[in-house]
Amino acid sequence: MQAGALPRWQRQRILGEWTQRRWPLCHSHRGRIKRRQYLGGMKEQFFAALQSIHPLGADTVSSLDRCLAGAHYAKGTLLVRAGDPSDKMFFLLKGAVRAWYPHGEKEFTDWFVFENMFFCSISSFFGGAPAVQFIEALEPCDVLVLTRAQLDAVSAAHADMLALNNKILTHALVTLQQGIIDQRFKTATERYAALLAGYPVALQRVPLRHIASYLGVTPETVSRIRGDMKSQK
Predict the structure, then answer these.
(1) What is the Cα gyration radius of the chain?
(2) Which residues contact 86 (CB under 8 A, 6 or more apart)?
(3) Positive or negative torsion for Cα 112, 118, 122, 128
(4) What is the mean pLDDT of residues 180-196?
(5) In angstroms, rounded to a whole number, what is the distance separating the alpha carbons of residues 85 and 11?
(6) C-alpha angle with apex 17: 28 to 37, nearest 5 degrees?
């Protein structure tokens, strides 16, 4: 999908807010030290999350560490644009992200991502096809980025990394299947309750209109669902 095929308000958002910012250059010695310390802390958070899924050897960690790039995205930035290729896998260290589809003047939210979660354009990263969704920063976001080529190279060299990939993909497939089942058979109230159970605090950071577009209802309906749930407590 090309930007010119979208409504004017969406074109302005895409072209005006595509403002990826790598970590700013630090010309002073103190600035460079602070940058290294911050990036080091980000990587510690990343590897702790990986080790909780599957243990990785020191050589694997070292190989993966050399591939990682840190990036910061301002609120409203589109990390991935529908119609464009994207070979990047992101790990969200701080912030909130959503994936959405445009349809006329409306947006339909597919999923949300919060801290310590991976995300990418599945169709593009794994299939090599153009992305079918926009992936947008709902808040200022700090991420670590790994390309498909880098991931394949580390996985080919280290069996424990390949095992980790398999576990992550298995979990993603199970989650995707459950999402399809929920979409078909659960009511909006049931889906909101499941979303709230999974992200009770983080969900408070998501605008009401995005929650409504995820559930396929109006913001007024979400407000009513919230009110009904509070009255039942």
Answers:
(1) 19
(2) 80, 120, 121, 124, 125, 131
(3) positive
(4) 91
(5) 18
(6) 30
133-165 confidence digits (pLDDT tens)? 999 999 999 999 999 999 999 999 999 999 999
Q: How far apart are CA 183 and CA 181, in angstroms?
A: 5
H helices within the chain, ranges in order?
8-17, 29-53, 58-67, 122-125, 148-157, 159-185, 188-198, 208-215, 219-231
For residue 128, give both structure tokens: 């090599």
Six token digits for residue 118: 């991976």
CATH superfamily of 3-147: Jelly Rolls (2.60.120.10)
Average pLDDT over residues 12-23: 39
Neighbours of 200 (CB within 10 A): 9
Q: What is the largest CA-CA distance in the chain?
A: 58
Instruction: Give the model confidence (pLDDT) of 62-81 as tens digits.
Output: 999 999 999 999 999 999 99
Q: pTM (2 decimals)?
A: 0.81
